[in-house]
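Quick one, T. Sequence first:
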Amino acid sequence: MVKLKDTILEADILVTSNLKNSVIKDAAVYVSNGLIHGVGTKKEIHKEFSATKIVDGNNKILLPGLVNTHSHSVQTFLRGKADDFALLDWLKQVVLPGESHFTAEEVYNSSLLGFAEMIRTGTTTANDMLTTHDSNFGIKAAKEIGIRTRIGKMLMDYSNDFPEIIIEDTETVIESARKQIDEYHQTQNGRVKYSLNARFLLSCSSELMKLIVETKDEYDDLMIHSHASESQAECAEVVRIFGDSYFRSLKKLNALGSETILAHGIWLDDDEYNLVEQTNTRITHNPSSNSKLASGICDVLRYHKLGIIVGIGTDGPPCNNNFDMFQDMRLAAFLQKIKHLDELALPAEKVLRMATIEGAQAINWGTEIGSVEVGKKADLVMTNIDEVNSFPLYNPVSHLVYSASGKDVSMTMIDGEIVFQDGNYLTIDIEKVKRTATEYQEKWTE
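Structure tokens:
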């Protein structure tokens, strides 16, 4: 990590994601002590500020760091091992057995590799789910690489034909989560916040869900992060076990609200959509995962019409198979156009907001991150616009959503510190991390 007191970042184009969706040409941003103190043209910023470092922005777009509202960094070592499965088979046959047999070192390295891919492709904040065991090693990975994150262990106390090794008794689940909250929540200059990751209702008893809600209420700025209504088969199982539909069951458990974010949210009836609206529950849309697992298409437009905050998430490598938020922005836009047969559905400007400021709002971090504005945290990304996929460039926002990819990212700054620049990781030894992935691959295939 490059430790900087103050920096001026220049760019041909600055996309702010502020209230006005301002786009500034020949732009610059002044950063000091991890915060944005100046936003304007190069001429304006250089007239008002001086800095110890200037980051050249020739042939670059500068934008807010992307916010991945649903990820499983720890599943990175399982990339490519669960292709072409239905959701519940995918879980039972590959993902849960894989997670359950990770060693502590593998939890660390798999998470580190996932976070490395995120910052390489422009994600500065992740709402991340880890394992039931040794999850502190995944949090360690987040701390070391420098990513901003809501993060925590996976909470499960009900086997439901899942591997017994990953199931804990109810009291142990809550006790271990509380210990991690006390140790990690709001640490690293506020960059790491804890998340109560209830996997889904098929692995969490009613008793556990009630304890999770109680725990959330006892601490400041905690969120519940879970999956809900992802596939029809999953929803049918919830009805069988809980006696009601997914969102009505969550409502009975008091698990909905502005401090809850739910991944997927595809198979809802009219009453359930109303429950999401009434409780101000947040949704994270995961277009690549939903497409690959044939789960269905989330009706993002319906959520938006109800005023519901929706972010974009990549989900994990076994169901995506990457952490490139640019790909998920593009697919999110395309799927809504197909679903509604409306070419105006989810335009580029709205999709980019979902991946930046609205993603930040979805995880209750919107006052500090998600847009390039004075007073906000300096979480910034530069993309290269000198590659063949950038010509001609009529509209920078449309370019970012429809043409760009994570491979175009040339610099990632988090909390005012550069963590990736020009192909180089500045906080970790990426070659060592890649070697650990190869070693795991060889172990798996023995």
